[in-house]
């Protein structure tokens, strides 16, 4: 994550580590033939956590790449890229 401060990097890395643990837990539940509803609930929680990490990354991109631009042409081009990303992944 070039260009981002260390606290943002740490925060996103920690989020991903938690998500990784959640996914391992889901695999364990499946291997143990746990109740499908419990597995689905854990999958939904992991998906939501990943979405939150993604939104944090987008916010970071907006803060560092767009709001610091002094050139409106560059800022407008970057905002167009962000709009395209939001449309693609929303």
Descriptive notes:
- This protein has helices at residues 6-31, 36-66, 72-89.
- The protein is mainly alpha-helical.
- It has a single domain, classed as Metal-sensitive repressor, helix protomer (Methane Monooxygenase Hydroxylase, Chain G, domain 1, Up-down Bundle), CATH 1.20.58.
- Helix 1 packs antiparallel against helix 2 (36-66) and helix 2 (36-66) runs antiparallel to helix 3 (72-89).
- It is elongated.
- The relative contact order is 0.11.
Key structural traits:
90 residues, mainly alpha, Methane Monooxygenase Hydroxylase, Chain G, domain 1
Rg over C-alpha atoms, rounded to the nearest angstrom: 17 Å
User: Number of DSSP strands?
Assistant: 0
Largest sheet: none
- Count of individual helical segments: 3
The CATH topology corresponds to: Methane Monooxygenase Hydroxylase, Chain G, domain 1
Element order: H for helix, E for strand: HHH
CATH class: Mainly Alpha
Distance between the termini: 22 Å
Q: What is the helical fraction, as a range of percent?
A: over 70%
Estimated share of beta-strand residues: under 5%
Q: Do you know the CATH architecture?
A: Up-down Bundle
SS-derived structural category? mainly alpha
Note poorly predicted spans. none
The gross shape turns out to be elongated
In short:
With 90 residues, the chain is an all-alpha fold. It has helices at residues 6-31, 36-66, 72-89.
Topology record:
Elements: H1 6-31, H2 36-66, H3 72-89
Helix pairs in contact: 1-2, 2-3
């Amino acid at each position: 994550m070039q260009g981002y401060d260390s606290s943002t990097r740490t925060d996103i890395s920690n989020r991903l580590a938690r998500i990784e643990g959640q996914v391992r837990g889901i695999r364990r539940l499946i291997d143990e033939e746990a109740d499908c509803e419990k597995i689905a609930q854990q999958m939904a929680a992991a998906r939501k956590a990943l979405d939150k990490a993604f939104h944090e990354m987008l916010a970071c991109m907006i803060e560092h790449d767009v709001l610091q631009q002094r050139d409106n042409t560059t800022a407008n081009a970057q905002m167009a890229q962000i709009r395209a990303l939001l449309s693609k992944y929303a």
